[in-house]
Amino acid sequence: MLKKTISALFVAFLMIIGASAEGAIFPAQRTDVDGVTRYGYLDEEGRTVLSFSYRQAGEFAECGLAAVEDDKNQTAVIDRAGYVVVDYTDAPVSVEFSDDAIAYRYADHSVYYTLEGEKIGSYAGAVGFFEDGLLLCKSPASDLYSYVTQDGSAAFEGEFKDAGVFSGGRALVCTTDGQYLAIDTEGQTLYTLESGIEPSYMTIFGEDTIVLSNGMAKALYSLSRSDYLTVFKYSEISEFRDGAAMVREGNRWGLINTEGKLLTEPTYYYLSYMGEGLYAARSADGSASAVDANGNVAYRTGSYVGGFNELRYGLSWHGTADGSLIFFKKNGGYFASLKNAENPTLLSENVVRVTQDGTLKYINLSTGNTLLEQPKTFDLGSGITAKTVHYEKFIGYREDGTEHGWNVYFPEISGLSDTKIQKTINDAIRAFFLKGPSVSAEYEALEGSYGASIEGSVLVVWASCISGQGAGSSVWNDSLAFDLRTGEQYEISDLLVSGYMDTVKQLLPAEHEIYLYSFPRISTKGITYYYNEYESETSRAYTESYLLTFEQLGEAVGKESACYQALNTSLVKPTVTVAGFTDVHVTHWAADYIRTVAEKGLMQGSGGKFRPDEQITQAEVCATIARSLSLETDDGNSMEGIDQAAWYAGEVNAVWAAGLLDGLEAAFQPNSVMTRADAAQLFANVLVQQGAALPDEQTVEEALSAFADAAEIPEERRTAIVLCMQKGLIKGYTDGTFQPERGFTRAEFAKLLTLI
């Protein structure tokens, strides 16, 4: 029995997150054409460090570990190399990391491991981590707190109505008769609080400061001095972060230290902690700022639409009225901006996950490069393409103020020669996804994507969504099936004969009532039934799938039916492609350029594919130049360091012998991506040999000064770049950058070749 979690939503893996070690890597998601969202890890160049093989994946904590989940709803902890530190086991509610331990949090207990993966123990009702050698636990039976050692034994006698974790050898507790005490690790009373006064938090801050409440106001109190550090004049005092707490006096907010000294007078209309010592502040003039505990402004804007929520990896963000996102640094100042973007999550010092123009993207803010984005189209085979359509529907706001509604993706197919049949199928698919799983579900949140496949001559499309939120939410994975030759829509009753449910009932596990097996999906192998479990307080919504093959179904299958015949008849449709490349359709933006370079023999594919979206390598660029200039290869005159048995050896040698690699040969790596700056040098070498004159220094300076990233252009490439710009071979981007280290896709390079 296979359990599959099909939620396209992120798991709330609870972690203590910080900047990862040198060479940041981060989790990224990709939904494939099967409708399943898988996770892998990328670096800041967009390279896949750990393959997209996880059902869920969390960010790496400061300790260098992350939690991942497989298709069997099991969770493991891995290191940055993908090595499993804690083996896969039943998925907990969350996974937390500290500096020296890992905690798997289940509904009624927690299991702790060392950072090396050794099990420490299992503890009922555990809270936090071991501090001063003791762990705070709340008994599920009595609802009382106690402290235990690593072997699970009681650290000392006594249970408490409320308690906090130890800090510096002391903890706050509330006895069963309502008395608040500060105790040591032996359970001995150090301080007794006066009756009628209650701690706002069961936490000791700084040396010995606690926050007290008299029911009307709050004050700071020193345990060791048995004295108040402030009077009861604040209506709110937050928990301390980095030595400071937010205080509210009247309707204004300020900041205070653990000694009761005001660091910033209560002047702000709004204040919240962002992280790393900064606070989001709203002033009387409506401006929003990021300020430190002393009120120093690190960043300020009068154009504010959301954001300032948190500071991660030294960065934060805010929105603007035109739909842009502005990213700013901890130490102040603009860092980057993105247009038509929303829902940002910072994943490293340079990378953000964001929804831009309705598409989930991972963007390097320093370079502007999109490292990964959800494909907008899928090739289903037989010339049929599925284009992803995004649908949103706003329903209202949840209690936490976030929007509540639908965020759904569904396919629109193309490639059928009969446009009427194609429209009929697309209309039915659209109506299916816009209706949702049920009438009542239309008023609940709906989140997710789709899956699609061609089974013989049948197009099968299914939902891969979660309906509802939190406990009670459920999987929606209903499906549609169409005959691509006629447009007819098939139901299970079109494939199986009358009375088939008796056979199906015998084949499906008896552990669930037969009516709970829903949403049957047809394929060339048989029929897959699904048991969908609702989300609970301890488990997310998940699916159990059961394939009943046609052999198992036997006489229940109507083998003479049009549906069965269609499943067993391959769809024959001529593929409309360019120059024989199966991955370049005539509608591709670079179709004409690719056809031109292919017909001239300048660029070749392999295995019948051109690979238009792959980055072109230095060896491939040399090959195209050698072919374009009809350079003759000379096996006796070879470039040093080149594998002479490699496919590219002859053409690379020819380009080198012609002097066209001048300025490039020292760092030449045939299988590495050719950057824009290096390509410009190679083209400039060609142009100079053809008689072009290099621009003077003043011309170079004036031309490159227009680029915001001019300082990033290598000194030795500046003249070559300007010469290529003068000849119309290369230009900057619309955002005012040149991006010298960015590469070309093979399709982009095909276009460039037609200009030479």
Layout: helices, strands, pairs:
Layout: E1 2-4, E2 25-31, E3 37-43, E4 48-54, E5 56-57, E6 65-69, E7 74-79, E8 84-90, E9 94-97, E10 101-105, E11 109-114, E12 119-124, E13 126-131, E14 134-138, E15 145-148, E16 162-163, E17 170-174, E18 180-184, E19 189-192, E20 198-199, E21 209-213, E22 218-222, E23 227-228, E24 236-237, E25 244-249, E26 252-257, E27 262-268, E28 270-275, E29 278-282, E30 288-292, E31 297-301, E32 305-307, E33 315-319, E34 325-329, E35 334-338, E36 341-346, E37 351-356, E38 359-364, E39 370-373, E40 377-381, E41 384-397, E42 403-414, H1 419-435, E43 446-455, E44 458-467, E45 474-476, E46 479-483, H2 500-507, E47 517-522, E48 526-533, E49 542-549, H3 550-553, H4 562-567, E50 577-578, E51 581-585, H5 591-599, H6 618-628, H7 649-657, H8 676-689, H9 697-704, H10 718-726, H11 746-753
Strand content: 35-45%
Using only C-alpha atoms, the radius of gyration works out to 32 Å
User: Terminal Cα separation, in Å?
Assistant: 60 Å
- The DSSP helix count reads 11
What average pLDDT do the residues reach? 89
Question: Strand tally, please?
Answer: 51
What class, by secondary structure content? mainly beta
Helix content: 10-25%
Biggest beta-sheet profile: 7 strands, mixed
Poorly predicted spans: 1-21
Q: So what's the overall shape?
A: globular
